[in-house]
Amino acid sequence: MLPYANAGQQEQPGPRTMSAKAAAAMGTKLADENGDRTAGWFIDSKAKRLVMNVLDEETAQRVQESGAQARIVQNSKAELKKVSDTLANGASVAGSAWSVDPRTNKVNVLADSTVDDEEWASLNKTAAGMDGMMSVKRTAGKFQKFHGNGGIGQSDAGDQGAGNGAGAGDEGAGNGAGQGEEGAGQGDDGAGAGEGGDAAAEGVLGGDAIFAEGTRCSLGFNVQVDGAPGFLTAGHCGNAAQNWTSDEAGAQALGSITDSKFPETDFAIATLDDAQAEAPSAVNLDPLGEGQGGTQEITGAAEAAVGMQVQRSGSTTGVTDGEVTALDATVDYGGGDVVNGMIQTNVCAEPGDSGGAMFSEDKAVGLTSGGSGDCTQGGETFFQPVTDALEATGATIGDGGGEAGQQEQQQLQ
């Protein structure tokens, strides 16, 4: 019996399967506990495991004993931060974005179609001097903020609209062709629902269209500000105008911006004009009024994690999904509009979707900022972390506030 007993004593706990929420909480906990001996982490969504980058065998063993999968990598967090700092301090170009990718253990730089040959050569020269810690790739399209022009969803493609707004002309609201007088947010009855104003009576939700002075954006999440109802949206939308309505004609007052931050970050908060108005903590899963219906209740906010599966709701392209591909991303939209600390994803979006809700199940995660590509060919989209916006404004969301991730982390300790 002795050999069997010894074998049992030598068994080491290995990686275990867990939910994305539990993986995110454990990743934060292990990073805090092991400090500079870790180099980022991500969720393997297929295997349902947390993968932790570490620098030595001793740390790897501790990580494995906690139930995560350890992976020994070469580049430390401090070394990768130096690469990011080099880009931020003048080595980058307009039309580029960069972030630390825990899957490759490198700083990945994306260059859009506006980056010319000379600038492309400059980026590659910088990468060559980074000892394999930086990669440079092209991305289709142009990095841009995803606000729309008025209520017809026009994008850089011209009068044909942005994705789902094609052919809407003067009749639509950028939310579908030929909606006519029942279209989202237009006409005498429009209120973003295509049902004679029912949605406005029930409260405007995350993903619904909001309008101001020829600009269309999307509502992110309804919140409470000092006990009063309000909502979050993108900062570049908040900079465009102070007073917003739920219809293109401007007849249905919605809210007034009280604080707006852009560039550097990208969020704005508004208080509702009617302090007694309903402001359900939910995302509209049918913001285009296509009859699919349904809402997603939002009970709190959560930190994003690389590999996290997410959805986005917006007033141009409706609901799309994908996953988080990087955190703490920097995007240079050009013209001095640089934003930091963004969530990078492979979720598509188009002009008019700015400010819209990104969420994972019942947790608010991000506010749509901008990106490249579209929902036909795909692309990258960047989001303002909701948790940062809540902390900066003092607003609360759902029953879980902004501390959902902390609560889940405590349960693992």
Give an account of the 3D structure.
With 413 residues, the protein is an alpha+beta fold. The protein has three domains: 2-72, GMP Synthetase, Chain A, domain 3 (2-Layer Sandwich), CATH 3.30.300; 87-138; 140-413, Thrombin, subunit H (Beta Barrel), CATH 2.40.10. Helix content is 21%, strand content 31%. It is built from nine helices and 24 strands. The chain has helices spanning 2-10, 20-34, 57-65, 77-91, 117-128, 198-202, 235-240, 386-393, 404-412; strands at residues 38-44, 49-54, 69-72, 96-101, 106-111, 134-138, 144-145, 148-149, 209-212, 215-218, 221-225, 228-233, 243-245, 253-261, 267-272, 282-284, 295-297, 300-301, 309-314, 318-332, 338-345, 357-360, 363-371, 381-385. The strands form five sheets. The protein has a six-stranded antiparallel beta barrel. A hairpin with a 5-residue loop joins strand 20 (318-332) and strand 21 (338-345). The radius of gyration is 22 Å and the shape is globular. The two termini are 36 Å apart. The model is unreliable at 1-10, 152-202 and 402-413 (pLDDT under 50).
Strand line-up across the major sheet: 19-20-21-24-23-22
Looking at the structure, what is the overall shape? Answer: globular
Q: Provide the CATH topology of the largest domain.
A: Thrombin, subunit H
Number of strands: 24
How far is the N terminus from the C terminus? Answer: 36 Å
Summed over residues and divided by their number, the pLDDT gives a mean of 85
CATH superfamily membership of the largest domain: Trypsin-like serine proteases
Keywords: Disulfide bond, Hydrolase, Protease, Serine protease, Signal, Zymogen
Protein name: S1 family peptidase
Organism: Streptomyces bathyalis
Family: Belongs to the peptidase S1 family.
